[in-house]
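Collaboration report, partner site 2.

Our partner group contributed sequences for two proteins of shared interest, and the home lab folded both. The records are reproduced in the order in which they were received, starting with the first partner submission.
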Amino acid sequence: MATNISTLPPGHVRAGRLLAGAGALAVLAAVGTLLAGAGALDAKAVWFFASCGIGAIVAGYFLTEGAARFALVAGMLFPAGAAQLWLTRPLWFPAPRLRPEGPVDLLMGALIVLQAAVALAVLHRQGALRHPRRLLQVFGPFRATLFLLLSLAFSVSLMGYLPRGYLMSWGLRMIVAGGMIGINMLSIAALLSLPPPFTRHRGFHPLIPAGVVLTASAALSWFAFERIPHVEDEVVYLFQARTLARGALAAPAPPEAAREALAYYLMEQRDGLWFAVTSPGWPAALAAGVRLGLPWLVNPLLAALAVLFAYGVARRLGGPDRADIVVLLMAGSPWFIGAAASLMPHVLTLTLTLAAWFLLLVGRQGEAASRRRAATLAGLAGLAMGWAFVTRQLDAALIGTLTGAWLLAGWRRPNGLVRTAAYSLGALLAGSFHFLHNRALTGDILLSPLQRHVADNWGKGANGYGFGPGIGPPEGWGALDMAPGHSPTEAIVNTLQNLSALQLEMFGWGVGSLALFWAMLLWGRWRRADAAMLAVVAGVVVALFFYWFSGSFYIGPRYWFAAFPALLYLSASGYEALAARLKRLGVHGYSSGVTLFLLALFGLLVFTPWRGVEKYHRFGGYRADIRQAMEAGLFDNRLVFVDTDADPGSFLYLNDPWLPAERPLFLPDMGPEANAAVAAAFPGRAAMLFSTRTGRESAQSGG
């Protein structure tokens, strides 16, 4: 039972309520400040202030439960964890900064030291430091050491330092990162050494984490991403979605004089047509949002649906407790929420994969009762996996094949062959749209527009798999592509980069996001479902080993996103393995459950907003200024030549593919003569120059 609040000393209850109330006011003030757009205040400072408020709410709550020491350690996790993030470089290759840049940094360092002191004091008071031999007996000295080494090994990416020969800098940052991981482990150990603040299971309906994911990703999309693209791929997906929303695969090519100005990455103007060369699966889903004027909301809705499917899958494979852990981890994952807030296709692929697995598991339960029902559900699962193939071919080919192999392995079960055949047929039917799309745009069902485009611009086979000097972009990718071509050495570095990104981004924990995964590998009790999930993770890692790009610089290691559901399941298994070991040490099960909840809360409420403030907001120079000016009616139907130092996609995404005369048309500023030549192709429309460098604008003769 939970502690009866009426039996607590009145001072505890009063102090807890005051502390929680003050924290709530701090969070509300921070949110209000950001909503008001107070430009004089640093958004990072507001985020840190809110993190302190969250820590006060957590501490106040546990104080009202009569757990004063638990309240102290739990409350410290949030401001001290935020302090660690404050001292971390946020972009490209995140790593601790080695030198303080002012008194604020020194204050953050002092807060981290205070966190360590509090944790050590509580551990000493609980007597947890007196029995290291017992700890080693339970966890094993070799496996415990390996767990610590694995937690440290991927805390700082080697990729940002090896190509430039900065190995000393990398080593020093590894030491600092290791110290921070150690401090966070002390805090978690202190929480586990304390009696649980309550001993009643407080479960939740899966709709709650689904609602949390929908709210968090929609808020991140609205405020941090500003409901606009932030990388070139998203610009192209929006163009393709608008084309498909009109019921067409391509729009008419622009006038000859404007073609150079409107040329863009992964888009082609060929044979009188203008089209994106990317796969149509995600843009077709995004087109529904375009028709409703809410493209930014498609991914958050899909993410919420994915949570429900994940719960159903985990419940049928591992039981209700395992399902609770999976969706808790999912709802607190900055990686998942960031992907859901973006305009990238990965959440659709994830949702379709989970839907297919769910349908197959439901069909297996009824396979002895109804052949028609089993075949129907398997066919629907195949359709889902087939559309995942139309969205992301490699991900779906890998996961779909492994899923088919799992089905085929049970061919002797009732309806086993029927289900396998129905699944395969559904996958072929939906997946065939990829080949029909190829035929419509290239004339060859086996040649995709993307393959042709890359071959024309980079060279034949440049975007292929394997090793060789001709694989990869010709030039201009800088540190994002370590060396020309692709080699085993570069493949290893790319893999290490993805592991480092996963360690940081998946859950956003100070002890490392892979802690529970390592725990499963080291202490877990392997079942068939765990082995199947490990096969998915291994398949994704091995498949991407042979691809030249790591793809981990925007919304985390997105090329590994197909492994996310398997990583969730294995992390839940790892949590159960750790909880079983901790019980042998006398740790109450609810202590580990509450600690896991606090870690998920940190990822959701501290790490995710940090990513929003420090990375996603205006990532790549993409700003909402031009869209806001257009919505205010500033441009009418003019030709708007944009002078900017950002990627031209930051305004080209606003164009309608059919270039209607009643809407403004945005083009890059190419100089007076070139601009005049473009304007001549659109008679009757005024032209103007708009600069995002200085905010200046001026009318030019046009028409």
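Second partner submission, folded after the first:
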Amino acid sequence: MTRFIHRDISWLSFNYRVLQEAKDTTVPLLERIKFLAIYSSNLDEFFRIRVASHRYLVKTDKSTLKNIDFSPNEVLKNILKIANKQQKEFGNIFKKEIIPELRKNGINIVSWHQLNKEQIAFVDTYFNEYLLPFVQPVILVGKKIKPFLNNGALYLALHLESKDVEKPEPEYAIVKIPSDHLSRFLELPAAKPGHRDVLMLDDAVRHSVRLIFPGYNIMDSYSIKITRDAELYIDDEYSGDLVAKIKKSLTKRSIGMVSRLVYDRTMPKRFLQYLMDVFEIDELGLLPEGRYHNNSDFFAFPDFDLFHLKDQPLKPVHITELESADSVFDKIKEKDYLINTPFHSYEAVIRFFEDAAVDPNVTHIKIIQYRVARVSRIMAALKSAVKSGKQVSTFIEVKARFDEESNLQWGEELEKAGVTVYYSLPGFKVHSKLALIRRLEEGKPVLYTYLGTGNFHEDTVKLYTDFGLLTQDRRLTTEVARIFTFLETKQRPAQPFEVLGVGLFNLKEKCISLIKREIDLAKAGKKARIIIKMNSLQDEEIINYLYEASKAGVKIKMIIRGICCLVPGQKGLSENIEVISIVDRFLEHSRVLIFNNDGKREVYLSSADWMVRNLHFRVETLFPILDERLANTIYECMNIQLNDNVKARIQDEKMSNKYKKNKDDIAVRSQIETYYYIKRREEALIFDSI
């Protein structure tokens, strides 16, 4: 009986669910292309972080691996086997499904062999005028010339033969495909009226590269790319200037250790072996793909204004009460507000900060910044608030992976504006999504807070499903204030957290106590049920408590988007646990915990997944929804998701990702159903207020 699935094998299963969306013919064509891009982007990051770690473990002295309960070598081999299989399917989807469907809609991705005379002249001109300054050709001489390949950049590996030698020896060269400077998709003069002909930039270089090797015959060309280790290895640093260390590490990320060579699987073995020798890569560092790599570039595939090939827009529902109010604080004083993005407009949250910036009664604004949009009205409001004489402080987590540089830039910009900036604490990350505003009312200070499951990021709120709570409830605001005091002073709070679960203090214990309460209720013959929604589930101790709950008779239903190391449905262990995963047009990002509590239902939201890192090495926040109206809304939203029979996949030991089907005549696509549920709810509130 398998008790735990390795986290990285489970993650590959999640990424396959993304690939399923590209395969799904009910998904609009241009959205299917977007899912190919998401799959490819995910896999690149996975290799730069997780596979790089496994390669490091494989090469590490075995005596230092005593605390690891798996074979790094076996896991790495399994990862590569699964990834290779998925890559083949990726290629088939693109070549046999996407390209023919594009052709039906008048968009032709043409091969360089198919170019007509007009197009050949166009490509050669484009090469000379735009491509030539960037291609950086290098002829490889034996193993002496070892060019440095930029991380993630595209290259053509060429097999050449000299025209001046009667029996030439094979020679090799590397040429850059400059997709970091130019569009990956080159629109050509159309061969037929009303059609769009598109040439991949790779093929434009492939066609015209003869112009820079006039003394050679180009025998073959194959696309390759190098992926480098992107881990900064600073999470466990406890001393020194952490910001300075991160800045220094960022400069090294682009020259990190090679973690894989991606290559065209049609490349001859002799050519591949030559490249392996030149770049000192072993077989565990190889990943064969199709003709094209860096398929995350398909995010920028031109839509040619063919909007019928994209998802129909869902206009965000406005929370009119807040957005049209003279002051959001007067409204929050009356009742709590729940924001469910992207179904709700994010305007109410932005107004929370913009009103605070100009309200003469507001004295303090505090916020935690984990990931922030490049252009942010919230950050602009913070700078404006300083000019109005308010005390503004922000805690910036500069260890937010791949947002380190952006967060450092924001920190410097905010400091210049007069905002007090606190940076990462050594040894752990701050992942809570919190803001706090202090306002004087009748001469007395009153606190308002925002607690959320997602970041203060005005771009991703349009793509990620998240919950946020605006409240004045003292049971919550006083403990949120305590979190900010800890982050600013680095002193442990004198009073314990009782209402909130806070990482490093009581988060894991609180989660376990809630599960154990349901176990006790089940053993006493009372109703016991748990509903969990989160991105990832990995922590073994938590999983073991869930197994114990299942054996006690607690009915557990879970919606886990990504990693799920728990194995549901096993007799005698987890037969009362059902797990589904939903992958659809929006990224499921919210974390929800619902406990039946013998009919006295309790609903919690959280910034934390049940991963070891979240429960042990991060400041996270679990918070209850104390307003019964809002708790019921969240419960209804979870029931909609649990009844999804369109985009839900069943999670099991085999990780087959079978779609969940039931006997209902009506298709339930939960994201669409949730949107209309929210829309009806807000319209009813407006009607009731008339």
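Feedback sent to the partner group on the second submission included the following. The first strand starts at residue 107 and ends at 110. The longest helix spans residues 72-104.
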